[in-house]
Amino acid sequence: SLSRSAHTTTPAATPHILYTHPTTPTHQTHIMDDESRLPDIEFDQEVFDLAFHPQAPLLAAGLIEGDVTLHRYGEEGNGVVWREPAHEEGCRAIAFNENGSYLFTASTDRALVCFDVNEGEIMFTKEDAHEAGISAILNIPETGLVATGDDDGGIKLWDLRQQKSVAEFSHHKEFISDMQSVPHKHMLLATSGDARLSVMDWRKHTHKCSEIIGEELLSLAIMKNQQKVVCGAQDGMLNIFSWGKWRDFSDRMVGHPSTVEALCKIDEDVLCTGASDGLIRVVSIMPNRIVGMVGNHGDTCVERLRLSGDREILGSCAHDCTIKLWKIKDMFEGLDIVRGGFGDGDSDDSDDNAMDADGMEEDDDEESAGASAASAAKGNKAKSGKKASLDDEDDDEDEDGSSSGDYETDSDDDSDDGDSKNVKGGKLKFKGDQFFDDL
After folding, report:
1. Phi and psi (nearest 5°) for 385?
2. 380-414 pLDDT, tens digit each
3. Three-state SS for 431?
4. SS (H, E, C) 233-264
């Protein structure tokens, strides 16, 4: 299979749609032309994933036969910095660390690999990192952690300086398709082929799951200053969750005629979608509208969308063996985008009321019609006492500097004291922290 997973699931019943904002799929405007693109990067095989270097005009790609490449891109053209065989099977997921000194790759062969970006050399390989092929990877900023998800629904968080897993979750039943994080809340979000969204607290080792949405959830974006979570689905829907209300989506957007394989957040109000019809669309969130089109990859499925470190270039890869680079710096001029808006019946204030301190609270079930007022009051009192106790425990943890569970986070205070490294074959220099000094 050329998709990120070979798994298929039987669609479940679609839950009730609370409300759906109108979309304008028939008025999509092409907002990109050839002058708004950098030269394409062409490959001799299909590209599964791409990642932009956070500080430099460099782009890494994971290929279907297991190779990993690093390219330099620009107005004048593209060039290969290095290309190395990393995996025995397809390289399905890649991610840079915060400063771009290391590149993490994962594969169907279940291995997790770390590259030194400057030298193009493998620093280490973690064989059998998962029991199934690895389908997703995410570097979590400011934590020293990398998250990986596999074809069986397993999720692991790795402290790669210790080369070991520090947290594991197994609540999903199908492949992990995408992940995002909120580091300061110790939270990891994931979508899965089992048609569920999950939210995990890696400090407390707890999680919440949505109900089964109906179709595979394939992509994920956190929007509206962490008030909304958007999930792209196999049926072309965008399912929108309100933060803290994880059981069911609060809104649903139609307008994509085919599978939404990829989401890329541009800013808090706008994201781009990549679909199996080959089109890359611009979508406004709250109010929900398709407001334009970036471009297309012909009729081949768009696998990934990524935003460059300077937020000026959108990269896309598809089954056409090409990475396209779109200059999006001025793409919003003339588009009908409402900034900071929320949809009817939803607001910033209502979302704040729906979540607790760490965003893991979920709506209580409705009281039964026959419940007495005294019983309801008693239940509310018990809940209040329990929440106060939990808050006290959290405060105690903050005072002594420790967290529940056996998880520990190492700080990245060690710096390189101004030392810099050269990228192999070029003059680019950037600062690097000695991420693996303690290996």
Report:
1. -65, -40
2. 444 444 444 434 444 444 444 333 333 333 434 44
3. strand
4. ECCCCEEEEECCCCCCCCEEECCCCCCEEEEE
